[in-house]
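Dear H.,

Thanks for agreeing to be a second pair of eyes. The structure we're designing against is below in token form, covering all 159 positions.
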């Protein structure tokens, strides 16, 4: 299984890099992991709605360029499905059985994900109605993907 995470923005904080490195290492025994960062567009403090939409579109274009045509795309979106860790594990397992060996998760920037990227997505997933920094969210996503593989392998995990 190939798991790709396309994320807007670079990780600057050492503690987040360390967590990402740890989960990347752990996932190595279950899948081939590829993390792709696309640059975030700077949003001025007084940006209008139109300015924000232009920024999202630019980020969206960069994201779409990184998604393989054959990939099953899961966009992390506030309007997505709320599922449990066990349901995510089942989703990944089902995709694998269906021959979908390339899964791409998309984490948008601070303004969210552009509409063309959401249209490209095969599935939309929401972790919570709360807002999280997209840098921290990458760690949370990696942890849940790792947990999903452990569940699917019948290995112990914290409930």
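And this is the sequence the design step returned. I haven't edited it by hand at all.
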């Amino acid at each position: 299984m190939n798991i790709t995470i396309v994320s807007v923005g670079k990780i600057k904080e050492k503690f987040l890099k360390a967590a990402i490195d740890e989960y990347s290492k752990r996932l190595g025994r279950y899948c081939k992991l590829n993390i792709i960062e696309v640059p975030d567009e700077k949003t001025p403090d007084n940006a209008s709605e139109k300015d924000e939409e232009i920024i999202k579109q630019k980020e969206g274009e960069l994201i779409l360029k990184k998604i393989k045509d054959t990939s099953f795309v899961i966009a992390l979106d506030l309007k997505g499905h709320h599922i449990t860790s066990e349901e995510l594990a089942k989703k990944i397992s089902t995709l694998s059985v269906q021959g979908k060996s390339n899964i791409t998760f998309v984490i948008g920037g601070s303004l969210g994900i552009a509409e063309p990227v959401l249209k490209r997505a095969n599935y939309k997933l929401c972790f919570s109605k709360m807002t999280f920094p997209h840098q921290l969210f990458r760690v949370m996503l990696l942890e849940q993907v790792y947990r999903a593989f452990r569940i699917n392998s019948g290995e112990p995990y914290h409930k």
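Two observations from my side: The beta strands are 2-8, 32-38, 72-81, 102-107, 123-125. The domain at 2-152 is CATH 3.40.1280.10 (Alpha/beta knot).

Warmly,
E.
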